[in-house]
From TrEMBL:
This is Cytidylate kinase. It is an enzyme of class 2 (transferase). It comes from Kutzneria albida DSM 43870. NCBIfam families: cmk. Its EC number is 2.7.4.25.
Length: 238
């Protein structure tokens, strides 16, 4: 990937169903930046745990499995792929079994420490090679990249998020709403890196915004923070 327009880190946090993944990929693609979906990393770890037939609530056993697993993520927003031990699991990690188990697995402190270290390595590599990266998850601005130049916390009503998830996954709306609320409660109450906005994050409510509207807001924030590469010949190159 060639050096793009974005300079630095854009951290996108927020609960499930706010459109983080889609808008983060589009933002990264439009700016020639790298993209990191930290949620996919936790889902891959969860799949490894399920394949090992380990109880997702058994912290010690979960830690052992995740430490052995080889998890890989593409940072190209136009060619996303997630692997576990060399095999592409991009579709499998989005299944209901993984969705149900990912919260307890991702709450294990040792798992978070291991994956956060890898996420930081990927961010550093992207900054060195591409110049900028859009990172999305639930603890990016607070834990993974606390020095990010732009931190945005995406929100939306639980009902709006459930409707989006229900349309996307073709699931029952009431069941999806219950799942969204359960995930919110679990993620926001865990002891390690709970879901919450960073103190210096900009909160953006996406309830009434479509994808284009959210992306426009983010692009404006990136520009306001002087995070774009100045064109050669402008006299302000950097």
């Amino acid at each position: 990937m060639e050096h793009g327009e974005l300079l630095g880190v854009v951290a996108l946090d927020g609960p499930s169903g706010t459109g983080k993944s889609t808008v983060a990929r589009r933002l990264a693609g439009s700016l020639g930046a790298a993209y990191l979906d930290t949620g996919a990393m936790y889902r891959a770890a969860t799949l490894a745990v399920l394949r090992a037939q380990v109880d997702p609530t058994d912290a010690a056993a979960v830690t052992e499995v995740v430490q052995r697993a080889r998890i890989g993520l593409s940072t190209d927003p136009g060619a996303q792929a997630t692997t576990v031990d060399g095999a592409d699991v991009s579709a499998e990690i989005r299944g209901q079994e993984v969705t149900t188990a990912v919260s307890p697995v991702s709450a294990v402190p040792q798992v978070r420490a291991q994956l956060v270290a890898e996420q930081r390595r990927i961010i550093t590599e992207a900054l060195d090679t591409v110049g900028g990266i859009v990172v999305e998850g639930r603890d990016i601005g607070t834990t993974v990249a606390p020095d990010a130049a732009l931190k945005v916390y995406l929100t939306a009503s639980a009902e709006a998020r459930a409707q989006r998830r229900s349309r996307q996954d073709s699931t029952d709306l009431s069941a999806t709403l219950a799942s969204v609320q359960r995930r919110d409660a679990y993620d926001s109450s865990r002891a390690t890196s709970p879901l919450r906005p960073a103190e210096d994050a900009v909160e953006l409510d996406t309830t009434e915004l479509d994808l284009a509207g959210v992306q426009a807001e983010l692009l404006a924030m990136v520009s306001e923070r002087d995070m774009l590469k100045v064109p050669t010949g402008s006299g302000r190159e950097r």
